[in-house]
Every structure is written in C-alpha cells, then in structure tokens.
Amino acid sequence: MKIMQPAKLISTLLLTMLAGYGPIALAEYSRSYMDSQPMSHINTNGVEIAYQVLGPENAETAVLVMGLGASHTVWGDDFVRGIIAAGYRVVLIDNRDTGESIRYAEEDNPVLWWQLLKYRLGLNVSTTYQLSDMAEDIINVMDTLEIDKAHLVGASMGGMIAQVIAAEHPERSQTLVSIMSTTWAKHLPQPDKQSTDAIRNMADNEDEEGKRAEFMKKMGFHAEAIPRQVMAILHAGDRSDAVKTITTPTLVIHGREDPLLTVEHGEHTAELINESRLVIFEGMGHNIPDAVRPNILREIGEHLSSHPVAGL
After folding, report:
1. Which residue in 16, 19, 9, 28 sits closest to 218, CA to CA?
2. Which of 55, 61, 62, 173 would be a feasible disulfide site paired with 150, CB 3.0-4.6 Å?
C-alpha cells in the first residue's frame, strides 16, 4: 500500500476539505445562526464535549457529526436550517479536539513520520484517542439528552464515526447518512498527485492574500487537531468487516469529483451495507457545494422520513 509523506498527507487532507470553497463560498458561508444559539457541555471521565441543540423540541433528532479538524460550525447555517426545515431537531457536536470540546496539548501529538512508517509496515500506530472514543462521545451526548435513537449524519471522518456508532451501537441509530466518507479499505484509491498539486496550487494562490487561512478559521477548522485525528483514522484501519455488520437503514452520499476520498470509497461503503442506497452527485468534490446542497438535503430528508422513530 502506497503511503504519502507525512507533511503531504496532512496538508492534502486539510486542503482537499477546503477545495470547494472558492470566492463565492467565502461570501456566502454563514454560521451566524449557530453562533447565536447557546452551547452546552458534558464532562465524562475528564473529557468535555460541547454540543448544541436546535429546532423543534419534540421532533425526531438528527445528530450531525463533522469531519477532520472541524467543529460543528463547518456544516454552515444553510445545511443545518435545511435539516430543521425537514422537520427534525438537530444536535450539533464538537468532536474532541475541536471547537469548545476538550483540546489536547501539542506534546500529545504523535511523531508522524514514525507512526506512518509503522502503518506502512502493518504495525499498530499510537493514538491520543480513537474513532471509537469519538463515537462514545456522541453516545454520551445522546444519553445526556435522553435520546434513545437518532438519525446519524456524518461527513468525511464524521461519516466514519457515524459508521462506528451504527456498527457498535445499532440500537442507538435510527438511520445512517454517510457523506463523502469511507471504510478505509486498503484497496481503495489514495489521492493522486494531480489532484494534490491542483489543490496545493489553489491554496497557495489563496494564501497570497491570506484568504484561505482567514476562511479556515472563520468556518471552524482546527489544524492542530489534524495529526491526532489522522492517527485515529489510521489506527482504526480497514473497517470493512465492521461496516458489513451495519443493519441501520443507510444512505451513502458521495461526490463524483471527490479528489480525496474518490467515488470508489462511497461505492464500497454502499456495497458492504445491505440494502443501502448510494447517491452520487456530479459537481461535488470533498465538500458540500452551494449548488448541490438543496439536492443533498432533499435526499437526506426523504431518507429520514422513510424510517421514522417509533413513538414520535
């Protein structure tokens, strides 16, 4: 299995997440609605997790889980309002190491070159925390809110976390929506050099005016969390066997032009989950473009409404 150099891997993961946010998105992105609402916190065994509850109190709950290095605000107001408009209460969670949740010190970072060498050799990598820990954080928030079952919507690494919950806690997952995510199976393509160079060149051009870093901060990305979260992903490795066990009604959404987790990643996820539905969007990379968002929200709304929580 070909392994990218540590610096290239980290920069590619982050830059590709940002690839779809050009000048138009810079103007249109908003988090003001989310910022105007209060945050709550729980502390479980010394791990503080921040969360936000929005929408109608007595509605079914959709839990939104964001990806690598990203706080809940990266979803953006339009996406969150879209889920609420479909008739759902939304729980937004800051994964550990992002937003207002627990943040780890720099000295907790793994030595990347050594960990990636071990990964290439098929050895276990060291982690500050694991995907399963992040999944337990979600369950702990649900317990605090007395939510027995929720619709799980996860993007990128958040999709991996949602998959872990659906596999390990099927009784807590009413539906699963896995967006631009992966099983991390070893046969799946890694980012190619062409897409990596294109993303880096675009980012360099943005950086000349300082727009990229400014926008990253505005959206809620936390670059310092990325090394630790990359190690959590690599430690979990190929989760195909676990994903095969998922019985939760599942919708897999992927972009045809995703340069980080290419469309094969979404196709493989859908192949493994029995009776899942795969929707591939043209014009979508590793992001949720403004032009595609309404169609994504429509698909999610239809999927959630087709599998209501009993008693609500």
Report:
1. 28
2. 61
- For 274-293, the pLDDT digits (tens) are 999 999 999 999 889 999 99
- Calculate the alpha carbon distances from 207 to 194, 202, 213, 232 in Å: 20, 9, 7, 29
Threshold 0.70, pTM exceeds: yes
Q: At CB < 8 A and 24+ separation, what contacts does 107-110 make?
A: 108/228, 109/227, 109/228, 110/227, 110/228, 110/231
Q: What's the CATH number where 278 sits?
A: 3.40.50.1820
193 belongs to a structural domain: yes
Residue type, 153: V
Asked if residue 1 belongs to a domain, the reply is no
- By the 8 A CB rule, do 49 and 41 touch? yes
The angle formed by the CA atoms of residues 202, 292 and 255, to the nearest 5 degrees, is: 65
Instruction: Give the whole-number percent of the chain exceeding pLDDT 70.
Output: 80
- Domain of 261, in residue numbers: 6-305
- Total structural domains in the chain? 1
Is residue 312 in some structural domain? no
